[in-house]
Structures are given as C-alpha cells and as structure tokens.
Write a structure and sequence with these properties.
2 domains; seven-stranded mixed sheet; about 55% helix; about 375 residues
Length: about 375
Amino acid sequence: MTQALAAPAPALVTTSTIRISLLRDRTVVQGGLDLLGDWSEEGKDNIWIDICCPAKEDIEPLLEEWFRFHELAAEDAMSPTTLPKHDSFPRYDFFVFRSISLNIGQHGVHSEKLSCFLGKNFLFTIHRDPLEAVDAIWKRAPQDARMMQRGVDFILYSVLDYLVDQHFPLIEEIEDRLDEIHKVIFTDPSQVLLDELLDFKRDLNVLRRQSLPQRDLFSQISRGGAKFIREEHLIYFRDLYDHMFRIGEFVADERDMATSTMEAYLSVIANRTNEIMKVLTTFSAIMLPINFIASIYGMNFENMPELKWRFGYLWAITAMSVVAFSMLFWFWTKGWLLPRRRDVIRRELRARRALRRPHIPDKPAA
C-alpha cells in the first residue's frame, strides 16, 4: 500500500497554468493547487490535474517529489519531441499522444504533444499550448459529473476521442482542396498548382508519420496493455483504434490522390509542350524550303540568269508561297497540324459504336 500524499507545500506554487478537477461527493469541483489538500491517493475521490505551459524548474518537483513519478517519465513529459509511447509503472501508466492541426492556406502542420500520467484515481495531462480537446472536456466535467464518476481512465478516453475526431474535418478539407486542384489542372495548369501539390504531399507525409505510431499505441491499449485502464472501458479505446485506422487509410488515399494529381499535371504540361513543339516544328519545316529558295537567289553570282530577269522577284515570292501553302495542306491532310473535321467525326462514331457493342463473354473451355 502506497503512502498517502500530503497537502502541497507553498513552494509548489508555480508560474505554469495548473488547474484541478476533483470529484467530491458526486460533485466535480474545479480550482487550483489548493484542491490537492482535499485529495488522497488512498481515498476514493478522483482527481484530474491539467498543466499547461509547464516550466521545467516548477513542474519537475511536483512530478518527481510530490507524486513520485519516475524521473525519465517526467523528462519525457517535459520534452517537446517525444513520439507517441506507453510506459508502465507500478502506480501509474505513462502515455504520450499527439494532436495534429494544419493551416491549409499556409501549409503548416502543427503537432502538439499531450503527456498523461494515469493512476488508480488520478490523471495528469501536460501540454505546452492550450488544447481544444482538453478545454472542451474540462468545461463538460462539472456539467456531467458521471464522466469522472466512471473513472479517470474515462476522462482520458473523452479527451483522446475529441483529439482523434479533430483529424476528420482536416482530412475532408484536404480532400476537397485536392479535388479542386484536380479539376483546375485540366483547364488552367500553372506552377502555383504544382507548388500546392508539393506542399500537400509534404503535409500528408507529416500526418502519416504522426498517425501511424499513435495508431499502434491505441492498438496496444485496446488489447489491455495498460493496467490502469479498466476492462469495461477497453471497448472505447478499440473504437479510438478503429478511428485512427480509418485516418491512416484516408491519409494513404490522399497521398495517392496527390501523387496521381501531380502525374496528371505533368501529363497535361507535357501534352501542351508537345502541341507547342508540333506547331513550331511545322513552321520550321515550312520555312526550310523558303530559306532554301531565298539562299539560292541570295548568292549574287554574276552568271545567274534569274538575277536580271524582269519577273524574277515575283517568281521567287510565288514559288515560296506555293511551297508554304502546299506543305500546310499536306500537313493538314496527314492530321499533323489540325485534325480534319471528317476525321474527328469518324473517330467519334467509332467510339460510340464500341461503347454500344455488347460484351460477349468467352466460351468456357471444353
């Protein structure tokens, strides 16, 4: 049996934001560090301590000396770079979770760490910046005391459920934006769209790196890997795992869609480049015989009879025009310059007949 904790000393008053929710006589009371004097680890009252903007020199004594948390767990709780993880200790479970937010306009993925110490009747949540999920459940706790009556592990589930559900609007927003880019690409491709796609691919890679470890963590918890989460509440964490699995699949689908959209963009640009090169090549081919004729009569040899001919200039211009128009007509008949209208109609008719043609299944082998 562990020793009951005494009231906090005045030295524990910190510059960090610390708030406490205490379940007392089926009523949730919220306040500051003074509520710790009304709670004992050996009692039946549940307590939730939320710490925002923690200062290391202030919070470490509270974690290591007052609540006797392991120094490595306290260090991971204060570190901003810890990935999702779970460590089991005799008196508590230590968790690290990650929340994700994305600014679609600026393409900035922001990941906020949420550290949790979960014991028999206490829950610590530590985060550097205010979290919407924590604030929402904190406001609901006094209005619905049944949440804390069901146990601090249910409070943890409620916070995580809100945290996970925030991924879905984000993914839908990314999907809508990628659909818009996909439509615009075929009408007005530009370098701006390519930059957008590259930014989205980078954002989705960050989401994937953050979601996969968290999905594995929920899978571990849902299988009973955390001893301070009650068995009757494991079904809720299995639901969180299902949500994270869906999020991982959505992220993978969106990455594939971003990749296919980028390939479509490159195909459209390559097709337009080919069209431009075809036009330039056509005019270069037309200018080649014209330059040939002009170069012959630009040599200025004395014994060239056409140089003193009265109609020589008119003949040269006429020859150049006839050659140019003849080549244009020949390119057009080949369909290299512009497809003829009758050829377009024939292709459309063949395509329509092919679509109306019934599918005849292959005969089974004898």
